[in-house]
Amino acid sequence: MKTAQAESQTATNGATMTPVEKASPQAAETHPVKMTARKVNVFYGAKQALFDVDLEIRDNAVTALIGPSGCGKSTFLRCLNRMNDVIDNCRVSGEIRLGDTNIYGAHIDPVLLRARVGMVFQKPNPFPKSIYENIAYGPRIHGMAERRAQMDEIVETSLRKAALWDEVKDRLQEPGTGLSGGQQQRLCIARAIAVNPEVILMDEPCSALDPIATARVEELIDELRENYTIVIVTHSMQQAARVSQRTAFFHLGNLVEEDETDQIFTNPRDKRTQDYITGRFG
Amino acid sequence: MTTGAAPASFVSDAALKRLQKRKAADRRLKYYGLGAIGIALLLLATLVTSLIITGHTAFLQTHVTYPVYLDPAKIDAQDPDKGNYRSIVRDSFAALFPDVTGVREKRALSDILTSAAPYILRDKVVADPELIGETIDFTVPVSDPFDQFMKGNIKRETAEDDRRVTNQEIAWVDRLMADGRLSKPFNTGLLTNADSRFPEMAGLAGAITGSFFALLVCFLISFPTGIAAAVYLEEFAPKNKFTDLIEVNINNLAAVPSVVFGLLGLAVFLGTFGLPRSAPLVGGMTLALMTLPTIIITTRASLKAVPPSIREAALGIGASKHQVMMHHVVPLAMPGILTGTIIGLAQALGETAPLLLIGMNAFITSPPGGILDPSTALPTQIFIWADSPERGFVSRTSAAILVLLGFLIAMNAIAIYLRRKFERRW
């Protein structure tokens, strides 16, 4: 069920797999912790965007980050693969572990980290190159294929996993930008999968798509859960309810509540969560 | 949100009046714009028309064709370089007019031919020594006054004392014409000859080659340097006082008058480094100083225009900073960079002042063989010719300007073509 790489990763995870407090016993059995955030604070210049966030992200599950605009959910997501590093005045403190490695440790190369923690963005952003090149680019820069045949295989597998193969197999050399919005987003997902990451971060992946394309991407996210850990930022509560197993609610830079998705949507503990999911603000 | 004011009326007098005023203002604005464009077009049309009117005659050149006997007694068959070609040319020409006998008349007669005629004949014989001893049809340009007379720039009706050609000479020319010996083909010499003291022989080959070499040097220096500087400033430089200072100075550099760059080139490249005077190498280096800020500024603008989503996409799958730049951002910015470079080079092509200061306005009668040979450039050649008093150089100056404009238009057309072809919408 898991890829070889993910398996070896789980093996190294042993230390952190010691049970932490779980919302439901069922989750503890099936979903070991994949990433752990401890006391994460993020500053943009003098302005603090996140306050002491503690969160565990579980393997083979979809974690949804919800909350009103500007609550810091995207900021938190970008901490998980150090995409915030490229922002000039952004400063991150605290600890985020992938397995048992602190990804903000001194010896960690953010470039390699991003190969292990892939990302899909809000707006589909395929490279203005062929469909094939879009997928092949990542494996090539990471030296994952020595021969053309291997690369062809990676491209095909990635596109199959992203449920796009049948639609594009006859036009792999056509530009990726010529696809429809939904296909482009699935191409971006395939591109992220191609470098064989352990975690895939998705920053509102469906907000630029129509309902039908959204449904396809959601279906895909559900399938990908088998092999990957997925963290998704979404503005749509229905989407969070549909695709995620766990949900974290952010408000004004604080992590208010994190639990099983069912629990959050049916029986939230915090008043703010309740107000938000019932549409009283946000 | 009620304010208490009555809702706007579409039909009240005041409203209609305001409407009329607004429409009139819109119309006025439109006409001002049209007027401005009209004036600009009119000025351009005046410039080009006047250039064509003065310059078009320089694209034709009057030639005379007559039989020349290559007397073996006057040419050294072993070394055809040596020979009394002057006498050959003159005697053969005089043979057409047996009635002309006086020494002065004979000299005046031979003045119809360009003074360079003996050299043209010599080159012909050197190229093909077999010709010695034969009679060939020899075609040479006529000297400038007769060329101008044939083109109508010197009028027959003018009083004899006021024109460069005498009645006697006109009679000779009429006879040559009646014999069908005069022709006015396209003046290929204008593009294939280098500069000369004789307008009928002067051409732009030296200037065009010199400009080409200078631009080549300019491109080789400013293109890589400009891109590297822009990439650093745009993608790597930390935001601090120092980089701000650099930025301000680059923008200022673009506004520095070109003559100052010329002085800099004179002092540094010629004075300190002792590079050869008048060489396209120095010209190109000086022009590169001017082109550099243009390239840096346009390159930065094109790098900025590449959407951040592409950078994020590449970073997100684990590309390093240099991979993001070299695999994605720079290739996507390349059309814009090339457009900026070509426009910068086009500016450099037309630049005169710095080249005058480093001596690229020398009188040089052969095209440069490399970047170290002394040479002129197109704009400096125009400057030299504009300074020359002969009638022939007046039209050649205009013709040279037209050639320069032709190159500029071609370069800008390439820039527009590249932009259109590779333009990307996001």
UniProtKB/TrEMBL annotation, chain A:
The keyword Transport applies. Pfam families: ABC_tran. Residues 1-31 are annotated as: Disordered. GO terms for biological process: phosphate ion transmembrane transport. PROSITE patterns: ABC_TRANSPORTER_1, ABC_TRANSPORTER_2. It comes from the Bacteria. It is a peripheral membrane protein. Signal peptide: none annotated. It is found in: Cell inner membrane. This is Phosphate ABC transporter ATPase. It comes from Tepidicaulis marinus. The lineage of its organism: Bacteria, Pseudomonadati, Pseudomonadota, Alphaproteobacteria, Hyphomicrobiales.
UniProtKB/TrEMBL annotation, chain B:
The chain crosses the membrane at residues 31-53, 204-233, 253-275, 281-303, 324-346, 399-418. Keywords: Cell membrane, Membrane, Transmembrane, Transmembrane helix, Transport. GO terms for molecular function: phosphate transmembrane transporter activity. It is a multi-pass membrane protein. GO terms for biological process: phosphate ion transmembrane transport. InterPro entries: DUF3333 (IPR024573), MetI-like (IPR000515), MetI-like_sf (IPR035906), Phosphate_PstA (IPR005672). It holds the Pfam family DUF3333. It is found in: Cell inner membrane; Cell membrane. This is Phosphate transport system permease protein PstA. SUPFAM superfamilies: MetI-like. It comes from Tepidicaulis marinus. GO terms for cellular component: plasma membrane. Belongs to the binding-protein-dependent transport system permease family. CysTW subfamily. Its main location: membrane. Residues 208-415 form the ABC transmembrane type-1 domain.
